[in-house]
Amino acid sequence: MPSPYLLEHARYFVTQQSAAAWREGTGAPFAVIDPDTGDLLASCGLVTIDRVLDSAEVGYWTAPWARRRGVATRAIRAVSRWAFESLGLRRVVWQARVGNHASRLVALRAGFRVEGYLRMADDGGDGWVGALLPGDPMAPVLDESVVRRARLFNGPQPVLAAKGGLRLRPLEPRDLDALVDACRDPESVRWTTVPDPYERANAEDFALRIAPLKWVRGAGVVYAIADTDGAWVGSIDLNISAEDPFVGEVGYLAAPWARGRGYTPAALAALCDWGFKSLDLARIVWRAHVGNVASRRVAEKVGFAFEGTQRAALAQRGERRDAWVGGLVP
Predict the structure, then answer these.
(1) Which domains occur in the chain, in start order?
(2) Does residue 186 carry a pLDDT above 90?
(3) Which residues is 254 bridged to in the sheet?
(4) What is the DSSP annotation of 279-298?
(5) Which helix (H) or strand (E) holds 264?
(6) pTM of the model as a whole
């Protein structure tokens, strides 16, 4: 969609593009209208139709004044049902840019099975892709946590307060120098999976691409631990398990100059509390290489119960390492 979207764009879509799609059989756009007032609420339709595969892609948008009313969900169900029954299609595909959790939630509510990622050739970004087949239930019962998470990850990453005046905030460019110094520390290299040697490019990739993308995808969160002056003194992350969405796993790295001050236990306690309350997690896992006593002490201070040793559980620069494992429950 053009940005900014102008009147001429709307006029072209309505008077030329939509009419041509219907005439040529390449698409089927619909207006979604309030039955009582006649006001436009949304647009929903098939943006492409592939008669070779008997497949189509659905697209939709909702006017700001009609959002959070179930308009898009009902519209996509109606269009999909019509596509199967009237056009004889075998599949309806949904796509959205990774991070568009509102669109993803609509698709899930309409019965689409979100099946993976699709590289977007036009701008290099990734997209989510899902499909609906004839006979799939179009009104599945979603766990309330799915709805809450979609709304959470659709917004900005929150800043969390931790004991001692610490803040957990997103990583920023100003953190890069400190991050490089911390990741070059021999103890960091020994006990974590940071690249060795650790270059500034590694820090830039982690802080400016990997960390924000984790939030955008809804896969977890990465935080900078900031002291009372706002300076970076460590990093901490919480990853949602792909196998069990009610299980998370934490990891953390303390700056050498900030160790022994209680910063990491305070940050870990704040992050776990947020994970239980905001993500509805039922269990949070901690793992560390066997022998990493400092990491184990941090976890146990927060209440993690030591559960044992996993053989060859962690990869570190091409080798498998045994891991200690612990768990925390609400």
Answers:
(1) 7-142 (3.40.630.30), 160-328 (3.40.630.30)
(2) yes
(3) 234
(4) S--SEEEEEEETT-HHHHHH
(5) helix 263-278
(6) 0.89
